[in-house]
Amino acid sequence: MMLIPGQTLPLQLFHPQEVSMVRNLIQKDRTFAVLAYSNIQEREAHFGTTAEIYAYREEQDFGIEIVKVKAVGRQRFKVLEIRTQSDGIQQAKVQILPERVLPSTMSAIQLESLSRCQLFPSSKPVSWEDHCSPQWWQKYQKRKFHCASLTSWPSWLYSLYDAETLMERVKRQLHEWDENLKDESLPSNPIDFSYRVAACLPIDDALRIQLLKIGSAIQRLRCELDIMNKCTSLCCKQCQETEITTKTEIFSLSLCGPMAAYVNPHGYVHETLTVYKASNLNLIGRSSTEHSWFPGYAWTIAQCRVCSSHIGWKFTATKKDMSPQKFWGLTRSALLPRIPESEDTSNQDSSPLLCL
């Protein structure tokens, strides 16, 4: 799993070395590192995220000690040196990567004395419907970037690198994915907001590590917006051409968004995306409510109809009064976003170029 700052990571550990390591962490600073690998063939990781434990519980199952942990991603880091101890636990020397906070696009030409003339948050619309009003938004943008008339550049160019404008554009995309999304559930800080979006995007590790390397919220938001605009559907990562679902089917069951990390009884972490409909899948075995991540729903294993790769699960309600009656939980590691390539990059074997 590639951890994003602010993302919750559930763990269930039962190997003696891992249990001992977590116990030592609890007595110290409760912080450990999660290395970011762009693919399973990569031997060395160059980036990662620190994780802070905020919930810890020990249990015993048939005499086996089990540690259940919940941690949250904190800071990005660059790996300087890494070594493996005799017990198999890795230790690394890392450099914490700072967040570059860029000044306002108008700061170079707007006098500080004019800052009091800006539109105060209390004057902004309180509902999403009012906020979507073209008249209000045009008036607000005109007032915010009025100093652009003193330069040789148009105001729309400044808006492309304005954090607030980018956040509003991303929110519009998120509302297309989930019509029940509440703005109050999203962070107001551009840095936290950009990480929340990165954790919710159903992209593969190659794209996610690109977002993790970016040290500016504005650049990160521009890349995320580019991905959301270009991504039309999700395919089987093994087949690469078999379409599983489209972004219009994505919905959210929790305040965390449409995708969250869940751990199974064997300790494997699945980042699971919830969608209303999925295609080209075969169901394997009988449905079961045991260890279900969604109370009141029974799960059935789902595999790709073409290559039989594990894609996720179908969840079916056990009671008639539950809504939705059924949905699909797709694991991010089995999905590949379909992003059309431009003509000049169609012959190159590389990840899609993101707009910075």
UniProtKB/TrEMBL annotation:
Pfam family, one: Yippee-Mis18
Entry GO terms, CC: Cul4A-RING E3 ubiquitin ligase complex; cytoplasm; nucleus
Keywords, sorted A to Z: Cytoplasm, Metal-binding, Nucleus, Ubl conjugation pathway, Zinc
GO biological process, one term: protein ubiquitination
Top-rank taxon, per record: Eukaryota
PROSITE patterns: CULT, LON_N
Domain CULT, chain residue ranges per copy: 231-339
Family designation: Belongs to the CRBN family.
Protein name: Protein cereblon
UniProt organism field: Phascolarctos cinereus (Koala)
Gene: CRBN
